[in-house]
Design brief:
By secondary structure, the protein is α+β, with helices and mostly antiparallel strands. It is 20% helix and 34% strand. It has 6 helices and 19 strands. Strands 1, 10, 11, 12, 13, 14, 17, 18 and 19 form a 9-stranded mixed sheet that branches. Helix 1 crosses helix 5. The longest helix has 14 residues. Bound molecules: zinc ion (ZN). The site of zinc ion has 5 residues, from helix 1 and helix 5.
Length: 309
């Protein structure tokens, strides 16, 4: 576990296709000061828009997680957020020259490689974590998501699809950077061939292709080369969950149990947590835990206001 915050050592740039717009979009990840968190900039509109990666800025969770302010939004941030978590980056400025983060190969692996190229810079501030103190759960339409206290970040996820290729898959593990890069980061997003055709007819998923998603036909995977893991589907759901939970503004210490959840429910759990200040606490890692006393000053907001200044 890291005791200090980290940012990237130098700016790094990637170019890729936006899944929904089908347009080529460039992305630059740059160093940011300690305690500034992850912050996105929409640089293709004038004046540019600064959007902190905080749950309160989530404006849409239908196909992906979209954040925004009055005049600008950035969609599909979850795989990059998961990669930033997996690479142990607390602070970074993400410049996106378009309406969505490029899809790359549909997983977090290209972003992890990019962050590896950037290098990791230790900062002179202790790392903060959101430590869960009380169980919190949400559920909708037979889907559920719950979190309970634990000294580590642990995820168990179960999915169930009425399709022979997926059916029921379960994944359960402690989440660490090493585990993330080995077992989760490469898992790609997926869609059903019939749905992909429908989305394209409606002007959505225009950039979607076999290069950036696993496409599932009636009986088999359409992509040459098949799957990267036999349970790639549930692993990708874990990736999404990790990225969405990072919108709390700091890594979580808690045990998460998900059943068929997606971006909407992930965001609902984060909102539910933030509305219950007694259910969690911000702790700093300075070698030993410093847990503020009960009844003391609860830090309700994890992200400092300074990034908006
Ligand atoms: Zn995803």
């Amino acid at each position: 576990m890291d005791h200090y915050q980290h940012t990237v050592k130098k700016p790094v740039r990637a170019v890729g296709i936006g899944l929904h717009s089908g347009k080529e979009i460039s992305l630059t990840i740059s160093p940011a000061p300690a305690d500034s968190g992850i912050c996105f900039v929409r640089s293709d509109i004038n004046p540019t828009r600064l959007i902190p990666a905080e749950a309160k800025h989530v404006v849409d969770t239908r196909f992906a997680t979209t954040i925004g302010t009055e005049n600008g939004t950035i969609a599909t941030i979850e795989h990059l957020m998961a990669a930033l978590f997996g690479a142990g980056i607390d602070n970074a400025l993400i410049d996106v020259h378009g309406p969505e983060v490029p899809a790359m190969d549909g997983s977090a692996a290209p972003f992890l490689r990019l962050l590896e190229n950037a290098g990791r810079q230790k900062q002179n501030s202790s790392r903060k974590y959101v430590k869960i103190l009380e169980p919190v759960s949400v559920s909708r339409d037979g889907k559920s998501l719950a979190i309970q206290p634990d000294n580590r970040f642990h995820v168990s996820f179960e999915i169930e699809f009425d399709h022979p290729l997926i059916a029921r898959q379960r994944f359960s593990s402690k989440v660490t950077p090493r585990m993330f890069s080995r077992r989760i980061g490469r898992a790609r997003t997926f869609g059903f061939l019939k749905e992909v055709e429908m989305l394209k007819k409606n002007g959505l998923a225009l950039g979607g292709s076999l290069d950036n998603a696993v496409v599932i036909g009636d009986t088999d995977v359409v992509n040459d080369g098949g799957l990267r893991f036999s349970d790639e589907f549930v692993r990708h759901k874990v990736l999404d969950l990790i990225g969405d939970l990072y919108l709390l503004g700091a890594p979580v210490l808690g045990r998460v149990k998900a059943f068929k959840s997606g971006h909407f429910l992930h965001h609902l759990l984060v909102q539910e947590l933030l509305s219950r200040p007694y259910a969690w606490e911000v702790v700093e890692s300075t070698g030993t835990w410093r847990v503020p006393a009960w009844g003391g000053s609860h830090e309700r907001r994890v992200m400092p206001a300074a990034v908006n200044a």
